[in-house]
Amino acid sequence: MKSMQRLPARAHPFKPRAGLRLVFGSAFASITVAAWAQTPPADTAEAPAPASAAVAQTDTPPNTELPSIIVVGTTPLVGVGTPLEKVPANVQTIKGADIEAQHTPTITNYLEKNVVSVDTNDAQGNPWQTDINYRGFTASPLLGTPQGLSVFMDGVRINEPFGDVVNWDLIPQAAIQTMQIIPGSNPTFGLNTLGGAVAVQTKNGRSNPGGNVDLSFGSWGRKAAQIEQGGVIGDHLDYYFTANVTNDNGWADHNSSRLRQAFGKIRYTDADTTISVSMGGADNTLNGSQTIPRSFMDNFRQAYTFPDTNENQVGYLTINAEHYFTPNIQLSGNVYYRHYRNKNVSSNVNDDFDPDGDDADELTQAFNDQSVIVTDSYGASLQLTLLNKLFGKDNQLIIGAAGDFANSHFTQSSQPAEFTDSRATIGTGPFAPQTDAKTRNENWGIYFENTLSFTEQWSMTLAGRYNWAKATIGDESGVQPLLDGNHTFSRFNPAIGFNWNPTPYFTAYATYNEGMRSPTAIELACADPAAPCSLPNDFIADPDLKPVISKTFEIGARGRVGSHTTWSAAAYSTTLTDDIQFVSSQGAASTLGYFQNVGKTRRQGFELAGRTQWGPVGVAASYSYVNATYRSTWTESSASNSSADGDGNITVHSGDRIPGIPANTVKMRIDYNPISRWNIGTNLTYRSNIFARGDENNQDANGSIAGYFLIDLDTTYNVTKQLQVYATVKNLLNKRYANFAILGENFFNGPNHTFNGADTVNEQFLGVGAPRGVWVGMRYAWK
Question: Boundaries of each TonB-dependent receptor plug domain copy (predicted)?
Answer without folding.
Answer: 84-197
